[in-house]
Structure formats: structure tokens, C-alpha cells
Amino acid sequence: MSETKNDLTGRNEADEVSKEVTDKYSLRGRVFNRIREDILSGKYAENEELKEVSIGNELGVSRTPVREALRQLELEGLVNIIPNKGAYVHGISQKDIHDIYVIRSYLEGLAARWACERITDEEIEALEENVYIANFHIGKKHYETIVELDSQFHETIYKASGSKILEHQLSTYHHYVERIRKISLGREERAKKANEEHAAILEAIKSRNGDLAEKLAHEHIISTIANLNKQGL
Amino acid sequence: MSETKNDLTGRNEADEVSKEVTDKYSLRGRVFNRIREDILSGKYAENEELKEVSIGNELGVSRTPVREALRQLELEGLVNIIPNKGAYVHGISQKDIHDIYVIRSYLEGLAARWACERITDEEIEALEENVYIANFHIGKKHYETIVELDSQFHETIYKASGSKILEHQLSTYHHYVERIRKISLGREERAKKANEEHAAILEAIKSRNGDLAEKLAHEHIISTIANLNKQGL
DNA sequence: ATGTGCATTATTGTATACAATGATACTTGC
DNA sequence: GCAAGTATCATTGTATACAATAATGCACAT
Question: How much is the average pLDDT of B142-170?
Fold first, then answer.
């Protein structure tokens, strides 16, 4: 059956974004990323059974890396494993995405607050550069780059928060909604507004105003939610 | 070398609390819980290397379940895996615990807010019973039970929030700080105050006052942090 | 004495083999 | 015909075998 396979022996599309925990250059890591993307992108149907051998064949690897990947995905909540029975897709629903945004609105606020106390000069410069360059690409409608810069802006703040725990959690959520973010930032109007909000957050952080930074970062996500609703998501 | 082993063939101590994602009755699940407890309880030193065969021998299982468990722990952030090199303990520091409490203070607030909208009558009853019974056991100084009831109270609210995502996250954090919670609730004064706060949160939820419920739940955790500081943690 | 190169060992990465469990379908008795 | 029991198959769970990589230590040259 498994003919039109995409072999994972080389280093292919799974390489893109993902500044992830899981390494990309082991079979397991690549299988993990691959299945995750496939679940997040909706390639698998909800509750679809993920059989170890099938996926293994499809990806040209044995059961072992697939098993390990599935076990990890279980922990991420993207896969539901029933012992001795099988692994089932447990994708994220519209409601889940909405929940994630609301949760993020709080945690991004906290990250910005903490960043006020612990951010380094280099990180501030990185953020300034980010906002400046993003402004350029928004004018040019380079949407791929805009999304990437948006990611970097947020990730930098996560790091600047000085909390491994918070950084890890926000990164995970950020990646969960990546598909949505691409759509959201695909509108010039939203991209522009988002960047202005970034600039405001940055100013608050630079002036070490924790209350304001938290409020602005929180509202930045709320504003994103509003935009998504407007786009019917 | 591995003589004083504790075999995982039977169902032993790993059974206790953990309403976890990972199932408890597969070798992998038990190995996972076991290593996790050992890391959280500080049995392993920070950065200690976790060798698959050693752990396997110690627990009387082969490398396979150990590997899978380690991969999952990596995702939970308790283990740091360097490809082709090894798995290293990445326990949670005092600061991590503090961070978790602050993060929880926000998310518990959100959970309480959402619970106002979605809680069922059965869940309300469960909470009422919980507060009532806890009051009894606090009088009797049954600290084991008190901790268990505290867990149940919070878990019930997580469920009542109606958000799988939030529930999952809060459960994980809740478990992370279990050791600390045991210490905290070990003081009658704190146990009593905590239960009063639970009662207040419950009342707010019953009256469907989202703002108040969020505020109280938030302050409940802040109050816990204050107590921990008082205990020098 | 010290540093480089190679052989050896230890350890992880992957694949496969075997065991156990659950699903399916067929047979048999009524 | 139909239900219960059973045999067969599919699939997961665990163990082991083999491959690849990194660590270690020793020999040898300088």
C-alpha cells in the first residue's frame, strides 16, 4: 500500500520554523514534528487511529521512532493513547484555540511584566530592530517574513522574562496557533496594528513600567482575538 | 551493581496520586511516574545523567520503556536530552516553583472565572462536600487527607472550567508543586485559611460572579505564596 | 611531560523479534 | 437464525540485536 511515501531520511520540510524542544535531526524528532504538523494542519481526521506500522511505512522508518513520537504527542495532548489499543488523533478544536489565546493573554502579560525587571540591553536592541524591520516588510507585504518576525518578537520577550517555565509554556502555545497566526497576520491592517502594539509594549518595557507592559501585552492578545473573530475564526 | 532494586512488575508506590495523562499500568507509564517522582523529590542531582540501561536494571525492565519515559519527561521539561549523548536531570528550582505559583495565580483565576459559566450542579455539590469534609479533617489534623482534598478541590474547578487545555496545564503545575503543597498544608493555620478561601471561591462561583471568583482564586494562590515565604521556602 | 591518533569501550539510535492483548470472523450447538 | 465459544489475525507492549556516535584510554612521537 504505502507507495507515495515521503522519506524522512533526508532533511526536508519538517525543518522550517520550530525552535522546539524535540531535536530535528533524529528520526524520532522528525517523525514527531511531522505528525504534529499533520495534526495541527488538519491532515488527520479527529479520532483517526494512528497505527505505528502504517506511519512507519509511510515515513520509511521502523515502529520505534514512531512509538516514541506518539508517546510525546500524547503528553502534548495532541494524541490520545489507549493502552493496548491504539493512538488516536486529538487535534485542537476552535474552542481550544480560543482558550489558548485567552490563556496567552494572561501569560504574555506576565512575561512582559517580568521582562521589565530582567531584560538585557541586547534583547531590547533585538526588539527595537524587530519592530523597525517588521515595519519595512509590512510595507512590502512580505507576509512570510512578517509572521517570522512576529514569532521572534514574542519569543524574545519570553526569554527576557527570565522564566524557563513561562518561556516553555508560551512557546508551546505560540506554536499551537501558528497556523492561525499566519492567517491573522495575512491582513495588512492587522499586521500593521500588531506591530504598533509591539512598539508600545517595547516602550513600556524599556521604561521598566511593569503594570503598563503587562496591560499592553495582555491587550495585544485580546486585540488578536478580536481580529480573529472578525475574520470568522 | 544493581542489587537493591525495586521491581516494577507489581503495582507499587507509583500508584498514589497522579491523575495523569500517562497510564499507570504499562511499564512505560510506571517508569515515567517513577522517574518523575524521583526528580521532583530531589533523589537525583541536578544534571545527573540518566542512563537507559542503569535505570532499566534498577527497575527491572528493558531499555525500551525507559527510553519512552525519558522522551516524555523531556517534553515535560524535567529531563534534558542531548542527541546521541544522553538524558540529564533538569529538576525544578526554587525559582521555578515560585514562577509556577505566580503563573498558577493567573490561571487558577481564569479557571474560576470560566467555571462560573460552565460548572454543573454535581460539581458544585462535590465542592461543597469537599469544603465541609476538609473542615472536619483539619480539626483532626489528618494532613494526608487534607492534601488530597485540596487537590480534589482544585482539580474539580479545573474540570468545571470546561477547558481541556487549561485543565491539562493546571493539573501539570499542580502536580509539580505537590511536594511543596504537602509542606504548606502541613501547618494547621494555613490548612484552615486555605479551606476558608476555598469556601469563598465556591460561594463566588455559586453566585456566578466571574470577576469575584477570578479575584478570589487569584488571591488564594498569592496567599499560598506568602505562606511559603513565611515558611522560608 | 605532553599532545596526537587510533583502538577500545560505553552509550544512544534504530530495527526487529517475540509476547500479550484486543478485534474479527467463523464454527458449532441450540 | 442466533448466540456463545473459539480460532485467527491485527496491533500494541516489551525485549533484544545491531548500527552509529561519542567517550575513554593507551601508545607513540616529539
Answer: 96
Q: Is A193 exposed, middle or buried (0-12, 13-18, 19+ CB in 10 A)?
A: middle
d(CA B77, CA B82): 13
Q: Which amino acid is at A97?
A: I
C-alpha pair distances (Å), A167 with each of A55, A115, B127: 32, 11, 33
- Whole-number pLDDT of residue B16: 30
**Residues A158, A163, A165, A171, Cα dihedral to 10°:** 10
Return d(Cα A61, Cα A29) in angstroms, integer: 12
Cell of B77: 521539561
Pairing mode, strands B86-89 and B49-50: antiparallel
Spatial CA neighbour of B183 closest among B46, B41, B18: B41
Å separating the CA of residue B52 from the C1' of nucleotide D29: 40
pLDDT tens for each residue of B162-200: 999 999 999 999 999 999 999 999 999 999 999 999 999
CA distances from A177 to A49, A183, A224, B140 (A): 23, 10, 12, 48
Q: What is the pLDDT of residues A89-127, one digit of tens each?
A: 998 889 999 999 999 999 999 999 999 999 999 999 999
Q: How far apart are CA B158 and CA A191, in angstroms?
A: 34
- For residue A166, list chain B residues with Cβ-Cβ distance below 8 A: 99, 103
Give residue A22's pLDDT band: very low, low, confident or very high (50, 70, 90): low
Which residue of B169, B171, B175, B215 is the best one to mutate when testing the A interface, meaning the one whose CB has the most A CBs within 10 A?
B169
Q: Which residue of A has its CA nearest to B28?
A: A71
B16 to each of A109, A130, B126, how far by Cα in Å? 36, 49, 21
Query: How many alpha carbons fall within 13 Å on the CB side of residue A185?
Result: 26
B90: nearest CA in chain A? Answer: A164
**Alpha carbon distance A101, A168 (integer Å):** 16
Q: Indicate yes or no: pTM above 0.85.
A: yes
C-alpha B23/C-alpha A140 separation (Å) is 51
